Amino acid sequence: MNFEPKLISVFSERLLQWYSRHKRDLPWRNNRDPYAIWVSEIMLQQTQVRIVIPYYHRFLKRFPDLATLAQASLDDVLKLWEGLGYYARARNLHGAARAIVQDRDGLLPDTYRGLLDIPGIGPYTAAAVASIAYDEACAVVDGNVVRVLARLLGINLPYSEKGAKAIYGNAADELLPQERAGDYNQALMELGALICTPVAPQCRRCPAQAVCKAHLTLPDPAVLPPKVKKKERPHHDIVVGVVWRAGRFLVHRRPARGLLGGLWEFPGGERRPGETAQTCAKRKIEEKFKIAVRVQEQLAVIQHGYTHFKITLYAFQCTFLSEQARPPEHVVVRWVTAAEAERLAFARSNQKILETLANPDV
DNA sequence: AATTCGGGGGA
DNA sequence: TCCCCAGAATT
Q1: Which strand B nucleotides have any atom less than 7 A from protein CB atoms?
Q2: Superfamily for A235-358?
Q3: Active site residue: A41, A82, A190, A265, which one?
Q4: Could you tell me which CATH number the domain at A5-223 has?
Q5: pLDDT, tens only, A299-327
Q6: pLDDT, tens digit, for every residue of A191-203?
Q7: A203 CA, B4 C1': separation in Å?
């Protein structure tokens, strides 16, 4: 794209001035420690600021520097991440910290290119850390930036469209001032978060009002960027059991990768069509864990949504009857008390079961 | 190029 | 309900 130089300078100057007056006081803006900024940017991936804030405080209190994080166990890191979602972020952050201590003398790369080599750091996060922590002049492109650029420049393309990444990326590069890139990047995202919002943007308060193509030419600037329709999410019935044996119940750890990787959960599985929930619980638990159980009363029914599907979770009380001589393979099992379970990281849906166990209300 | 990865809050 | 959030890795 070819922008008039005037648009570029007017936009960045007004944006930075607006930012200096209206920016939120966010915890990661209080220092320029590359490690702290890295942690914040990983947490902020696809996650709103207000959700991240308490997690960020707890994380930096518990793991104040890269070496401390590297020494921690993955279980401890996952426990702190519990409920935040996208757990590969925590696994990558922890693994990267260990690799950096081992191979790089504990120092995070200090360039955009170098940062891209770190697991969990992609184009956005590399540009964010490089510009904010190291003053490198590289442009971030996140959901906020795409929305602001689409409206400012009248780009009528969903970011997911073929070739759209390059168009938005080039636009962001051309608008980026060479000075104060970190402040500029944060200002652009702040504008998207506070003014140029997905619905009902506050154009009246926008510092770019006078140069914004959408505001100047469209009845409703919010039509940009164009929405893409989402596929509907399939639904599954999942049945799990709380299997009691001498005051403890059975939990197992999910495989290290994939959905909810590394988190703990109650045993169970998907109900087949025509199968009762009780039969399903018995079948799933006995097959996988090589034990015999009796399924008892229903404990909870939980609705839960994931990115690509929805589940209804039926939880049943169960009692342990007997076990086979040969233990199950490739399954990490632990019999825990309620107090011990509190120290393990559970998926959100399973946390609701734990809460029911703790407060057997009604 | 598409799909997979969580969970929550606001409209 | 639906949408989308300071995206990255995998297929």
Answers
A1: 1-9, 11
A2: Nucleoside Triphosphate Pyrophosphohydrolase (3.90.79.10)
A3: A41
A4: 1.10.340.30
A5: 999 999 999 999 999 999 999 999 988 88
A6: 999 999 999 999 9
A7: 36
